[in-house]
């Protein structure tokens, strides 16, 4: 009896060790693109047309978008005339108070960025998109915007690119 109990414990430990090292993972950022039809994409500049302007944002956003497309698709980027085209503008860059303290001062501030994207499918009709995407990050009002601005713009740009990719190339 003791031997069979000991054997069951050993088998249980071995099974737990084997299943503990196995992992199933899914990556849901893949593109839904027929590479027999689509070979190229052209991505235009995204100029800033917002009332408040932070000049490095344009380059940050454009680099993130191009890098994401390159990492997640097999499309070749071309300057113009791609099978797929993406263009747009940064239409919003704003700060707004969020949490108000008892002294009527904001304890949190929200940085919101909006990007209008015009996506054109030159191979299939009905797949074009003209849409505005928005994302934000909150930061403590005791921090100076100049101290956190680069980090916030990077984080927001990543989120915006993910939203844009899923709505266009990801075809979610």
Q: Notable features of this structure?
A:
172 residues, alpha/beta, five-stranded mixed beta sheet, globular
Mean pLDDT across all residues, rounded?
86
Order of helices and strands: HEHEEEEH
- Based on secondary structure, the structural category is alpha/beta
Overall form: globular
Q: How many beta-strand segments? A: 5
Largest sheet, strands/sense/barrel = 5 strands, mixed
Lateral arrangement of strands in the main beta sheet: 2-1-3-4-5
Helix content: 25-40%
Q: β content, as a range?
A: 25-35%
Output the number of helix runs.
Answer: 3
What is the C-alpha radius of gyration, as a whole number of Å?
24 Å
Distance between the first and last residues' Cα: 57 Å
Query: What ranges have pLDDT less than 50 throughout 5 or more consecutive residues?
Result: 16-29
Structural topology:
Elements: H1 2-20, E1 40-43, H2 56-72, E2 76-78, E3 84-97, E4 108-121, E5 129-140, H3 145-167
Parallel strand pairs: 1-2, 1-3
Antiparallel strand pairs: 3-4, 4-5
Would you mind describing this structure in some detail?
The protein has 172 residues and is of the alpha/beta class. Helix content is 34%, strand content 27%. It is built from 3 helices and 5 strands; from the N terminus they run H-E-H-E-E-E-E-H. It has helices at 2-20, 56-72, 145-167; strands at residues 40-43, 76-78, 84-97, 108-121, 129-140. The chain has a 5-stranded mixed β-sheet with strand order 2-1-3-4-5, with helices on one face. A hairpin with a 7-residue loop joins strand 4 and strand 5 (129-140). Helix 2 (56-72) packs parallel to helix 3. It is globular, with a radius of gyration of 24 Å. It starts with a helix and ends in a 5-residue tail after the last helix. The model is unreliable at 16-29 (pLDDT under 50).
């Amino acid at each position: 009896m003791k031997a069979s109990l000991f054997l069951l414990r050993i088998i249980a430990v071995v099974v737990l060790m084997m299943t503990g090292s196995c992992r199933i993972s899914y990556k849901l950022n893949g593109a839904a693109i027929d590479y027999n039809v689509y070979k190229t994409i052209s991505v235009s500049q995204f100029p800033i047309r917002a009332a408040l302007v932070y000049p490095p944002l344009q380059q940050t956003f454009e680099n993130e978008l191009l890098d994401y497309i390159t990492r997640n698709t097999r499309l070749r980027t071309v300057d113009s005339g791609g099978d797929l085209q993406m263009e747009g503008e940064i239409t919003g860059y704003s700060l707004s108070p969020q949490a108000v303290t008892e002294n009527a001062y904001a304890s949190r501030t929200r940085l919101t960025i909006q990007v209008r994207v015009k996506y054109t499918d030159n191979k299939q009709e009905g797949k074009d998109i003209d849409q505005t995407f928005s994302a934000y990050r909150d930061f403590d009002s005791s921090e100076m915007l100049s101290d956190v601005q680069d980090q916030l713009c990077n984080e927001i740009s990543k989120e915006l690119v993910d939203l844009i990719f899923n709505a266009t190339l990801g075809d979610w």
